[in-house]
Write a structure and sequence with these properties.
181 residues, alpha+beta, five-stranded antiparallel beta sheet, two-stranded antiparallel ribbon, disordered N terminus, signal
Amino acid sequence: MLFSTIATSAMLFAAAIASPLAIRDNDDQPRICQNRLNKVRGDGCIRYVRGFDVTGVVTEVDLTFPQIRDNCDCIQACLDRPTTCAAYVYKFSTAASVASGHRTCTLYSQFNLPADVNIEINLNSTLNKNINAAEITMMGNNPQLGAPVPQAFRDFPTNTIPDNDAVSGEVWQLSNGETLC
């Protein structure tokens, strides 16, 4: 009797722990870019945010229309750079992008820093690799200052009309060749 009680309790505990993990990929966040991304586990991305830019500024790569036509092209551009891209944002980021009606795609090697975390990169260090030092300096992004995750807007640079169709998120390159996004 004692063994059966312990076994039943263990099974219920295991089921309670496993259930949230099993439904994690099937929560209320709909997948985007289904059947369009290479080597993505689960056929599409569910780890993304609409209307906000969760990316950082280090190792910035900017891509524009017509190379990038939609959010899936932007995510694929990040997937195509597995050794330098960990985050992407597809939003209006310049006055030219607003005027053309085409969002830009910016790729980063890390995510938005929390408000109380700042990093400064030694741009002259020989240890730096693929950091785009010239761009970082030109855009005044050194040091990179932490801040709350910024909202995306449709009317750069006035930033008065929220852009709920902007998409940003992370890309995790797994050692088995698959990707989670």
